[in-house]
Every structure is written in structure tokens, then in C-alpha cells.
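Dear colleague,

Following up on yesterday's call, I've attached the two folding results inline so they're easy to grep. Please treat them as preliminary; we haven't cross-checked anything against experimental data yet. The first protein's sequence and C-alpha cells come first.
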Amino acid sequence: MLHSHLTTLHTIVLVLDCIGQERGVPADLLLHGSGIRLADLQRADIRITTAQEMRVCANALAHCRELGLVLGRRMHVSSYGPLGYALLSSATLGDALELALQFPALLGTYFELSLQREDDQVWLCADGYRDLPELQTFNVEFCLASLKLVCDDLLGRPLELRAAHLRHAAPAYEHEYHASFACPRQFDAARNAFVFDAAWLQRRLPLADAVTQRDMRERCQRLNSEFVSRQTLLTRCRQALAAQLHNPPGLEGLANQLNCSPRSLRRHLQEAGSSYQRLLDELRFERARQLLEQELPIHLIAETMGYSETASFRHAFQRWSGLPPSRFRS
């Protein structure tokens, strides 16, 4: 299921740098169907939904199969804003990792992260994946590679790993793993994780500073509250719209259902990096994908989704996905 959690533009900028500039893929092709404009990238305060982020990553995967590893090797700790500086100023690696796990919304992760201690070893695990199945391997690679780089940045030197375990099968580009995981690697494993000696958790960080850490932690708490508040609104909007996809209520109707004014709802959605039409399109695309997987005829899918003409549904689906429904299904 697509999720509209909020996140920043860091990953989008990385994709445009790595795949756009370095591999010559046009930016408009990478941004296609995401609702993100090039002008948006100049706004430091903008928030986008993770569904938008994954749309761009799905576009980029067509040009780089190992995209998760490529991005993960560039997602430095400074990419996480106030959270990154809170981690850098922590006393030890263990303190920093425990702090990071307190703010999953600020990490922008699609996983449930945990530290699992087993004797003299610690596993940093990423399980409980909750987004598009076809992007799971990409997201596992991106998550673990970026976490490894964050650990390296915090320590000021590479964290020595004992092993890396991945649930998915070994990909054709397995050699690309060595840059992030220069250790024994096991695929088709029971979990997504990497393991290191527990002694590393007590390692003092070179940039530790108690005053800065306290200030950054307070900023993280405020920012996290802002993210959660905006996410609550998006969740309520999505739930209301999902129940009315065949006959959407319009912005004014939705505002009435949520007991607020249309102007207020429009402003709050804009602050959350979304809009009424964007949410509606996300839900329609999600529903259309589910129906296509059930092998229903295109005209019946169009009718089920409230389109009076099949052609109108075809045009809308191509706008959402970049492909006509028949090609998307195949």
C-alpha cells in the first residue's frame, strides 16, 4: 500500500545528481508522475510525501538497478538535518543510534529499525517493510547502506562489520555490495541487518558536544511533532477519500467532512507537501494497480473507479504511471 508519510527532498536531489547528471537521464523523466517540479528543489522548507519519493525512485530504477546501494553510499549523516547534527554531537555511537531510533519519521525509513544485542555482537536490523513490494529490495539496500555510512560518518572512520544479511536473493550486481559491506554477506537470510562488535557502541564520537546535542535534540522533538501532526491530517484525508473513490466529494465536501473550511484544508495540505488532487490521484493509482493485478478488463476497472469513459481512465492512468494500463499490467 502507498503511504503518504512526509519526508524531505534529500533523496530526490540525490537521484537527480546520481542518475540525472552523472548518467545523463533528463530530470523531467525522473520526476515524471511525482508532482514534484524542478522549482520545488530550490525550497529548503518543502515537504513531500514518501509516495512521491518512491515514484521518482521507481523511475530511476529503470536506469540503475543498484540504485539503493548508489544512493545509500551518498546519504551522509548531514542529509538528515537537525537529526544528523544531534547524532554527530552525541557522546558515543550507542547513544547516537539509540537517538536515531527514537525519530523514525525524521529518518524517513520504510522499516522498523532495531538494535539487537547477541552476546558480544550487535545487529542493526531493518524489518517490517511497509511500502510497495516491487521496491522492497531497493529500499532494503538504500536503508542498510545509508545506515552503514551514517555510522562511518559518526565515528570518523569505517565501522568494521562482521557480516551483512539480506532477505532477498543475490542480485546480478552483487559485487556492488562490497563498497558498503566489505564483510561476509548472506542472501535469502532470515533478516535484513548488519552485525558488528558490541564494543563499538561505547566508542566516543569525535564531534561529541553536550550543549549542541541538547539543542539539536529539542529541535528534533519539535520537528517530529510537526511531522506527526501533518501526517495525522494526511491520514484522515486519505481514509475519507479512499471510502469515496467512486464519487469523490471535492475539496469543499472533504473539508465539511473533516469539520474545517476549504481554505484551511487547502493550506494544511500545502504545508504537508500535498493537495486534494494529489491525494486523490495517489489513491486512484493505488486502487487501479490492485484491480489491474486481478486481471479485470480495462473498461470494468474504469467503471469501478467512477470514470464514465474508458478513454478518460486510460489518460489518467498514463499520467499517474507514465504507461497505459495495458502496458503497465504486462
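Below is the second protein, in the same order (sequence, then structure):
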Amino acid sequence: MLGHKAPGNSLRLPPLIKSLSAKLLLLTIVFVMIAEVLIYAPSIGRMRLVYLQERLAAAHLSILALEATPDNMVSKDLEAELLQHVGAYMVALKKPDQGKLMLMVEGPEAIDATYDLSQASFFGLIRDAVVALAAQENRLLRIIGPSPKDPAVEVEVVLDEAPMRRDMLDFSYRILNLSLVISIFTAALVYLSLHLLMVRPMRRITASMAAFRENPEVAAGGLTSTERSDEIGIAQRELVTMQEGLRAALLQKTRLAALGAAVTKVNHDLRNILATASLISDRLARSGDPAVRSMAPTLVGAIDRALHLCAQTLQFTREGPAHLDLNRFDLRDLMTEVREGLAGVGVGRAGWLNEVERGFSIEADREQLYRVFSNLGRNALEAGATEVRIAARPVRDYLVIDVEDNGPGMPEEAKPHLFKPFTGSTREGGSGLGLSIAHDIMRAHGGDVRMEQSNGEGTLFRLVLPVAQSSAQPAAKKAS
């Protein structure tokens, strides 16, 4: 039912009189009527021309009665009857090889207008027809033109305009009635077609959008995909795909929120347990038994990784959008600090090649970028890389920074989910949070990070970062 309030949401569809269907119906009628007017104008002009040509043809025939007499004369009664048949006050005929023949009765003396049909033009006929229809009183017209029976014969008649105007009005009324019937019939067909093909699908799409807005996590009763190949079908399929993607993202975020709440509750106890385990591992490291001492580093490493994972997960679940504390600093100095922070990871300082030239000054959050490059470097070194190379080059208002390692590369199954939390880990025991956090930080700076290549010869990450935050825009398309 039109104009009803969709259940479960506040959307109110417009009533029929204000609906898109009603507007389309009205526009169709208007456009058809405009088309009919454009057709009517030359039609009424043509109708007037045919009417006058018929009068000239009738006048030519009436003159034949004069030619049949020896003296080209007829009685007054016959002359009046012939002129009444023509509907004229005067008829004259002129042939190239003889004089002028005429029939005439007494009538009005003043001629109101003279028209030469041999000089008629398209727009002139339309203009004369409009003048005739607009006339309020009868006019006496003098019509001159070639006879339709013989173009070499010139015929002249004097007649009243009123009978012609009545015929023109009758013709106009017939055209108007026919136009209204065609307009209404066409508009009804267009209305039904557009209502079925456009308005109803659009109402379903609108109702689905409103329902999704009210309760985005409920899929029951939602819009389904369609096989239509036109724009409406494409829009409906894209909307269904978007809703499914957003619904999945919302469910994942709900689970992450629950995970964050759970981690927050158990974090304190878990850290205490790990601290106790760390103290025990220190005692094991000082044990007199060589076998026990040899196992201690492995235990310490496992506990350190557990502590790091716990802290990283808690931090990720607590963080909202990255808050930037902007300042200007030299990028090379930051890379040096990252190298020192990773001295105990993998092969240490020997594996970190800082090729960033001094003088690359950028405006950004130094601590946040430290996390980005520290995560990338740590991932590379822990994956087995013996060398990590950092290089940077300017591209317009951006810096393109390459982080390249010579590690074994990433497994193919990890690449599609590389920047998704808890799913993009490339090593056993990893959380997948490092790359997700790096991605969020780069986007907060108006930049981007993407993996350019990863194979058996190594992995290359490319980061795009604006030099100044005043030019921070989506950088992935601006620099490469």
C-alpha cells in the first residue's frame, strides 16, 4: 500500500499523488501534448490551404457553365446558384489564351485580406491559420491561385472567412480529443512500465536501505540479488554486496569488541602469571645443569612473545582511530632509532641498511611511525630475513618509502588478508596485528602501505607518506 510506514523503521514513502510514478505520468502527458501541438500547427495550416484550394477548384467548375454558352453569359438565377455552390460572392477565371471570365453577385464591398496561394510558405500557412482562428468577426477574403484542375489557369474568389473558420475549429476539436486520448493512453502505458521497471524496485531498494540503517546486523527479510542487467539491477546487486560486506564487518567488529573486553579482564592476571614464569625462567638460566641452562633461552623467548602478544592485543582493542601528535623530524634519524630498537631481533644491527638520505624532513607523529617501521622490521627479521633495506624518494608532495628484505617471502594464503587483524599473520604464533596497526597509522596520516611483491627472494613493502599534513589526501593514487 502506497504511503505506508515500513515496519521496523521510520521511513515513510510518499503518497501516490507525490510519488515518482505520478510525476512521470504528468510529465508524459505534458510531453505528448507538446508533441501534438508541434504536429497540430502545420496540420491546421495545411487544412486551411486544402479548404481554399477546394474553393478554387469549385470556382473553376462553375466557370465552365459560362464557357458552354455562346456569349459567355448566364441568367442571374443560374449565376447566383453557381456562386452559392462555390460559397463565394465573386468568381473570376483567367486563361493564358483568352480573357477573364467572371461570376459575381452583390455582397460586401470592402476586402479585408488578400491571399495568393501560389506564394504560400510553410510558416506563412501556420501564421495565416492562427490569424483565422483568432479572428472574432467574419472577414471578407480575396483568394488568388492556380486552379487545382489546371495549374495554367488562374482563379480568383471572394468569400467569407466564417465558414472556413468553423471547419478549422471542428478540425481543431477533433485533433484535441485525439491528442488527449493518445496522451492518456501513452501516459498510462509509460506509467505502468516505469512503475514496474523503476519505481517498485527503487521502493524496495529504499526500504532495504532504511531497514539496514535501523538494524544492520539482521539479514532476515533483506534485499536479495537480481538477474536484471540494467542500471537498477546493477544498483541492487551492488547494494546487496555492500550490505553483506558491512554486515560481516560489523559482526567482526562486534567480536573484536567482545574480545577486547575479555582481554581487558584477563590481562592483569595473565601478566602476573607470565611474570612468575619469567622469574622461574631466570632461575633456570642460572641452574648448574647445562641441559636446563640450554633450555632457558627458548623458554624466555616464548614468555617474551606471550607478553608482547598480550600487550599488543590489549592495545589494539582499546585504540580507536589513531590520534596524531604532529611534529617535524628527520626521517633518517627515525630509521636509525628503529634499527637500534630491533638490535636484539633476528640478526640485529648488521641486518638493517638505512639508505634514507639525511634531510628528508616530514611532518607526522614520530611515535606512531616508529611503530609502523618497527612492526615491518620485526616481521621481516623474525621471518628469517638477514637483511632489511630502507630507502626513500620524493614524489611531488609525498615520500615513497620502500622496506625490502631478503627473507623467504609470504605464503600465498596470507596475502589476501595481509592487513586484517588476527587473520594476516605470516608466521606461526603471530597475531596479525602488526600490519593492521601499520595500515591504520598510515591511513591516519593521509598515506598508505601496500605489499609490492613477495617471493622466495624477499618481500617489498611500499609506504606513501605526505611530507606535510596540509597535503594529506588518499595517497595511494597520488604517488607510486
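For the second protein, one point worth flagging: The chain has three domains: 18-181, 224-318, 323-471.

Best wishes,
A.L.
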